[in-house]
């Protein structure tokens, strides 16, 4: 697989990683995702990693970097479906996913994104008044 599909759902992008994420594919995903955020003016990104059983330090940094890039492009990132073994590995590697919100599943992740967008729109209205 050369690319991971990025689906648009309204103002959000959904990425479901269903294959082992090797370094080159991870970098391609990062490039594709930032380009898609810019093209669609997406306000949120949901990354489903429930199929990943193993995450190394490179993939962990890639997730954190992607979230930082999305934030610069005015999009919030939520990672969902992290398996306990993956969470343990990230902690043991000393990696923190700064700026990345997490949720147990896609439904809860979408709720976080919707709530965040509603709060941001309310703040924007207040700023205009």
Quick description:
The protein is of the alpha/beta class.
Q: What is the CATH topology assignment?
A: Transcription Regulator spoIIAA
Total domains, how many? 1
Tally of contiguous helical segments: 4
According to CATH, the homologous superfamily is STAS domain
Oligomeric state, counting identical vs distinct chains: single chain
Describe the overall structure.
51% of the residues lie in helices and 17% in strands. It contains four helices and five strands. Strand 4, helix 3 and strand 5 form a beta-alpha-beta unit. It has a single domain, classed as Transcription Regulator spoIIAA (2-Layer Sandwich). The mean pLDDT is 90. The chain has a five-stranded mixed β-sheet with strand order 1-2-3-4-5, sandwiched between helices. The chain is an alpha/beta fold. The chain is globular, with a radius of gyration of 15 Å.
List keywords for this structure.
129 residues, alpha/beta, Transcription Regulator spoIIAA, five-stranded mixed sheet, 51% helix, globular
SSE blueprint and pairings:
Elements: E1 6-9, E2 12-16, H1 23-40, E3 44-48, H2 57-72, E4 76-80, H3 84-92, E5 101-103, H4 106-128
Parallel strand pairs: 2-3, 3-4, 4-5
Antiparallel strand pairs: 1-2
């Amino acid at each position: 697989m050369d690319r991971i599909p990025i689906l648009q759902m309204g103002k959000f992008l959904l990425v479901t990683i269903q294959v082992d994420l090797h370094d080159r594919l991870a970098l391609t995903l990062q490039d594709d995702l930032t380009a898609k955020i810019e093209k669609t003016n997406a306000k949120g990104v949901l990354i489903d990693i429930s199929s990943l059983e193993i995450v190394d330090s490179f993939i962990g940094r890639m997730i954190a970097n992607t979230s930082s890039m999305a934030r610069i492009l005015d999009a919030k990132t939520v990672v969902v479906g992290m398996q306990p073994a993956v969470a343990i590995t990230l902690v043991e590697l000393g990696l923190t996913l700064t700026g990345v919100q997490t949720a147990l599943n896609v439904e809860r992740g979408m709720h976080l994104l919707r709530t965040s967008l509603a709060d941001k729109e309310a703040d924007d209205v207040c700023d205009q008044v």
